Each structure stands twice: as C-alpha cells, then as structure tokens.
Input
Amino acid sequence: MRLIARYAKEREGTFEIVTVFESKTQREMISKENPVIRTLAKKHPSAIWFERKMSDDFGIIIEDAFDKRPLVHQERFPKAIHPMQKSFQKNTLDFAEFIPYKYEAIQGDGVFQVSVGPIHAGIIEPGHFHFSQAGEDMLHQEVRHFYKYRAIEKMLEGKTLLEAKPVIERISGNESIAYQTAWRDIVCQAAGTELPLSLRKRHAFLLEMERIIHHLTDLGFIPNDAGFGAALAFASKLSEDARRQLQKVTGHRFGFDAIGFENKVLDISSLHDYLEGLQKDIVFFETWIMDIPSLWDRFDTTGILQKADALKYDTVGVVARASGFPLDRRLEPFYLEHGFEIQTEQSGDVAARFKVRLQEVKNSIVMMQHFLEEDDTHIVTGKINDGDYTAFAESSLGELFMNIEIKEGIIERFFVRDPSFMNWQTLHLMMPNNIIADFPLINKSCDLSYAGNDL
Amino acid sequence: MIQFWNKRVKEGILTENTALDKELEAIKRKIKENVKKKFAGSLAIRMVDSGSCNACEAECNALSNPYYDLERLGIYFVASPRHADVMLLSGLMTFNMTPHVLEAYKQMPEPKWVITLGACPVMEAPFEKTFAVKAPAADHLPVAHHIPGCPPEPLEIIKGILDFLKKI
Ligand code: SF4
Output
C-alpha cells in the first residue's frame, strides 16, 4: 500500500495525525499534553521526513523513530518553537544559538566526507548534499533541505481560497500550472461545481505545455552534465520557443494566473502549426542523440534505482516510471481518451529517466493536439462551503497532493506534498557504485524541486 | 550524427538570433561597450537564490540559450563568490538562507555589488512576511540595483544589467 502523505492538524485539545495511503486515509487523535505517535518509517521509509517535519512543526514526538534530528529547524532555528501550532503567531524570529546538525556518514579507513551547498556551483536552487567517499566512489549521500523554507503552510492560514491563489501558483515556478490545477479542483469541490469539459481540456493543454517546457529543459541539461553541450544548445532553444508559446496563450512565460474559470479565445491554427514543428524537431533530436555512443556510455547503468526500491520508498513521477513502476495520475479515462500513453522504462538509470522524458514530450504533443479546441466557456463557481478537500495533479515531476481544510470560509490548514518530497528521499539509493563526478548527472536526471519541497 | 552534418552542409551555419529585434541588438552592443570599459571586458556574476520559486533562476538560465547568448557579451555566471564582481540575488530572504547569503557576500572580493532580481527580495511578490523570512534583502546587504518582475523576462534582465552598468 503506497504512502502518499502524513501530516498533522491542530484541533482543540488534540492533534490529528492524518496518514494518506493510496486506498485509504487513517486519522489518529493524540492529546496535546502527551503528543506521542509511533513511526511508520519501518514499513515506509519515506515517512521519516513527514514525521521529522511534524516534530518541528507541532512538537509531536515520534517515540520509536531511528532518526530524531530536526528537519525544517536548521542550526540557528529556535528549537523550542513549533510554528505550525495555532498559538504561534509571531512573524519575526531571532537567530538562536548554533547547534550543529549531525550528518549521516559512513566511517572507516580511508573514508572521507564531501559537503556541497547550500549554495551550489551553477544557477540552481539551494540545498545541501553530504557524501561519504572512498576515493572517487560514493558510499553514501545525505540530502538536506529546507533552506528555502518560507512557511507557506502557515502563511496561507486565515486566507480565502481566492486570496491564497497567487501564493499557491508561486510555490514552485516549474510546477505553477500543476499547483493551480490542484487548487482549481479544490475550488470546484468546495463550491459543488462540476468543471465543464472545455475548461478541463484547456487546463490539461496548459499542464502538458508546462510539462514539455520542463522536460525539454532537462533533455538539454542532462547531456550537458555528461559533457555534451550541443544538446543543451538545441534543447534550450526548443524550451525557449515553448515558453514563448505559453506566454502567447496565457500572457505569462510560466503561466502564473493561467488557470481560472474562463477561457480565452486562442489562435488554434498557429498552435497546431507550432506543435507540428515541435514534433519534427523532437524526432530530429531523438535520432541525433540516440546515436551518440559516448553519451550513452555515461547514461547507461549510472544512478540506478531498482524497481523494488522505487516501490519501497513510494517514489512518484519520472523517477518511478523509469524504474518500471507505472504510476501516473493521468491514468484515467479523460486522459486516455485524449491520447495519453504511460511511458515506462525498466533500467532505472539516467538513461531510463532521459528516455522517459523524451517519450513523454512526444506523447504530450499528441495530447495537446487533442485538447486544442475553439472555446470561450465562462463559469461562475459559487459559494465556497466549509470542508476538508483533497486534490491531486500530475506535475512534470510527478504526483502532487494538496489538502485544504476550510472553516468559516477561510483556510484552517493548508497542506501540500510536492512530488519531489518523496523522490528526494530516494536519491541516496542511486549513489552507491557511482563516482562523485556522476552526481550532477544523476541529480539532474531526477530534476527535483527544492522550492516545492521546502515550502 | 550523419543527419546533422548533412543538414549543416545543406544549410550552412545558421544563427538562432534571427528572431531578435533591433532593440535587443542595440542593448547588447551597449552592454558589451560598458563591460569593456568598466570591467575590463568580463563581468562575473554569482547567482544566489535565497528562497525563490525557481522561475527567476529559470529565466537566468534562459540567458544562455541561443536566443540571448549572454556570454558573448562578456557576462559570465561563475561558480564561486570569490570569482564574482556581482551577486545577483533572487527569492525571499529566508531565515534559513540568510546566514549563507551573508557569508557568500563576505567571500566576494572588493569592489563588489549586489543586484536584486525579481519581486521576492523586495517583498513585492504575493508572499507575506512570516517568521521564516528575513525581509527585505536590502535590510541585510547594500543593494546597488534592482531588476523588477515576477519573474523578470530574459530581455528585462538584460536591460536591468545595462541599467546597472550605466549607473556605476
Ligand atoms: S519574483 Fe516571482 S518569479 Fe521570482 S522567485 Fe519570486 S515568485 Fe518566483
């Protein structure tokens, strides 16, 4: 049974621990006086970050956890403060005394440690990686995040769904449309409104557009990290073209504010022309890149994630699919009717993740052609009813989970689990038997979000 | 590979900059002149993300694509603050990143400048000030120039860099 998320909510006198599995949701009430729960991490290793986060956020104690280190609370964060508790209402914090974080590391003769980050060498988001090395070989890696922690879950409490939208669409710039789509589903549920097919198609078109931009960027950067810059030059031109198309359609290069309840009239024929051109370019790219042996020499067998591990760690998205785990939120009638075909590979290495992206771009183009139609539907959503609502979206990174509880018309609890929150926890499994020079390549082939993870 | 060379022989060398308008060409010329005059031909930028949504970084990455190709003007994104003339700072100043940003600034050799990029570091993005944000960036660093936008488009970043160059 796949674990999707685990998080806490504050009630009067109690904390509610919500654990979302694929087929059921469990709720457990614990008293605030003695907020103790047992870990799920023995069965679901990915539960550990959820649980460490709960400890930091609410002060909940995970009795039998093997890892009790802080997660969101970094070295200078006042450890006694649990900011998701309703009683914490301050909007400033002073730096506390520095308490060093103890990295997971392998000890032994000739083993040494390499630290990188939080500021990385390129134009890239901040995070920290800690490697245990024997010569060039990586023995272990610990991923450490939450440098970008902006307290978005707290920030959105007390707002209406409408007021929260501009923040939600900026949680992760690469997944803005996916976040907006999940938000849209929650608005529809709360208003008891059925989304008309035409709006659904338009939004699905935009979501695929976001996916191809992200994938095209990666299709350039992955070979670039293997020393083949020509691919970056080619693919970055295609992703720039795609971004300009997104701007033409939505008025914004990242589609901020693109998902709403009205459709603009589009220049359908020019979009069809564009898609046809892209299809040709991507076929050319594929023929070219598949034929460069030195590149595949770097991709093949590098950074393997075995299928059993992909399952055990509850991975999602491209990472899961490249390890032979056919998980995709688009596996449903609406998408299947519009040409969706799930893309999987078996080898779980950089090569597999690259190929999945390439095939997904081609499949997205087909779907986009089906989604495009002349339409200017407008709907009024109506009154937002109180309740506890959940939505999913398949972002370019994988399954996105959003839960919003509304009480008296405003957000009582906002919770989001970005796909990368699951996949970051799997990254260390891809390191053994690889050399450190392959780390950027492996990392890029997963291309996970830091902003969406840290919130 | 063969296909590539066939195409190349047939079509010759094509530049991808055909879509660029005159305006950008003129800006680029001025940037090159200014970089030559004020930075001996090469301006090194250390990009630091202190809590962005990553769209600002994506636009900076786009500056290297064949349409904008900023490196041709002598502007480089460098890997270490010790090699940098300018820190380009994006994102909200988060509580967790602030010490690291200040450390990176300290590592930069004099003379040095900070340019803020996008609505986040000046607290104009829709994010609110929380305990997790030490805003705005100008409270912590001497900011020489600001490039507005959410995110600023590549052309706006290029214009912003030119404005900075003219100013100093
Ligand atoms: S300014 Fe806008 S685009 Fe840039 S990081 Fe902030 S929210 Fe993202």
Observations:
- The helical segments of chain B are 2-11, 22-39, 55-62, 98-107, 154-167.
